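Appendix B, Record 12. Input sequence as logged:
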Amino acid sequence: MQLPKITVVTASYNQARFIGETLESVWRSGYPNLEHIVVDGGSSDGSVCIIRSYADRLSWWVSEPDGGHTQGLIKGFSRATGDILCWLNSDDLFEPWTLREVGHFFLAHPEVRAAYGDATWIDPEGRRVRPKKEHSFNRFIWTYAHNFIPQPSTFWRRDLYLEVGGLNPDFELAMDADLWSRFADVTPLVHVPRLWSRMRLYPQQRNQRFRARSNHEDLMVRRRWIGAEGRLSCRAKYFLAKGMRVGWKLCTQCYW
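Logged structural output:
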């Protein structure tokens, strides 16, 4: 049986330092049914020359000013024709086996609409910092502790993305948490205990540079589920959720 078509969207802006390695990580798996879309926001650092050199492997690409990272992703997904969708930021990487494992997983589990794997934190030079091994999805922990789902290790069916209305352009940093929240409203989020990505951790990374805005957007997402719950109650549940998460990760050997 033919493997499902996977669409990978990469949105980028002035990431010449990393984007070549990111693009290579998508293709080195040799996945036979791949659609790769790159949306560059009008970079001026040499990124366009790098992207252009790979143009023959891309299904579509563009470099032009846009309204930011989320708008770039929305533009890319509007052209997606794959059965399975995902995005890979231009400073992150897939493991060599990722797309093949994802394709076989969704083929073998037609009932699953969204799945996430594990990840590895790496530094700017690509050296391993620490693992990000996760546990099964739990809405209480996710809401009151933090969004623990590794974005580049997350894949979903196209019909699910369309059903929930896709990415929300109101979110520039917590757009993944917002999307996962709406996914979880209509379908289970399935954890696959396999390393599927490497996420780069460095001071210039967007969520690090704009931490205050990221936290504000994250709270907006959680408030939809928490509602008008009081501060003390939320704080108490935070410690409970944190304890549950640590205990779960210890029991499932996620810390080593």
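The first helix runs from residue 19 to 27.
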